[in-house]
């Protein structure tokens, strides 16, 4: 239920979520597992990994969620998504006046740098936090180990 509401809001436009809501999402069950990528529009490695995330989404039955960590007042996210062909992808924005503090609350133990990706097992257990840009094959291996 939570995931369905989140995806509906995420696909409808810029959906903001509190750090607590992101933490809840990261511990929610999912039929095939979940990959949650934390990124920003100003982050070069984040932009470089987008084709890999798109390739992963096209070949996997796991859920993919992109969590944008730009400051809430920045209006660059929607044009960025359109420019990079991500308009149909589930994207939410972390709502935190100071994104690093919001990430501390949402993902204890996050690597302190972007991008990073959280791999969540079907039962809602966080299995891995991957620092840096990821490749589709890396995500498939991480999820495959959970099944």
Index terms:
147 residues; Glutaredoxin; 6 helices; 6 strands; 40% helix
List the helices and strands and how they pair.
Blueprint: H1 2-12, E1 15-17, H2 19-26, E2 34-39, H3 44-59, E3 63-68, H4 77-83, E4 91-94, H5 99-106, E5 116-120, E6 126-131, H6 136-144
Parallel strand pairs: 1-4, 2-3, 3-4
Antiparallel strand pairs: 2-5, 5-6
Description:
The protein has 147 residues and is of the alpha/beta class. The protein has one domain: Glutaredoxin (3-Layer(aba) Sandwich). 40% of the residues lie in helices and 20% in strands. A six-stranded mixed sheet has the order 1-4-3-2-5-6, sandwiched between helices. Helix 2 runs parallel beside helix 5. The protein is globular, with a radius of gyration of 14 Å. Residues 1-12 have low confidence and may be disordered.
Number of domains: 1
CATH topology: Glutaredoxin
* Rough outline: globular
Helix and strand run:
HEHEHEHEHEEH
What is the number of helices? Answer: 6
User: Could you report the average pLDDT, rounded to the nearest whole number?
Assistant: 87
The CATH first-level class comes to: Alpha Beta
* Largest sheet properties: 6 strands, mixed
**Unreliable runs, pLDDT <50, ≥5 residues?**
1-12
Summarize this entry quickly.
The protein is an alpha/beta fold. 40% of the residues lie in helices and 20% in strands.
């Amino acid at each position: 239920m939570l995931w369905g509401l989140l995806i509906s809001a995420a696909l409808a436009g810029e959906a903001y979520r509190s750090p607590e809501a992101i933490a809840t999402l990261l511990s929610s069950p999912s039929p095939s597992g979940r990959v949650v990528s934390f990124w920003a529009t100003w982050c070069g490695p984040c932009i470089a990994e987008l084709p890999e995330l798109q390739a992963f989404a096209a070949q996997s039955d796991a859920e993919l969620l992109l969590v944008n960590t730009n400051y809430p007042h920045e209006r660059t996210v929607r044009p960025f998504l359109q420019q990079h062909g991500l308009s149909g992808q589930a994207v939410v924005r972390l709502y935190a006046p100071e994104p690093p503090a919001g990430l501390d609350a949402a993902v204890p133990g996050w690597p302190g740098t972007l991008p990073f990706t959280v791999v969540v097992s079907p039962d809602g257990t966080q299995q891995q936090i991957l620092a840096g840009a990821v490749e589709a094959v890396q995500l498939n291996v991480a999820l495959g180990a959970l099944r």
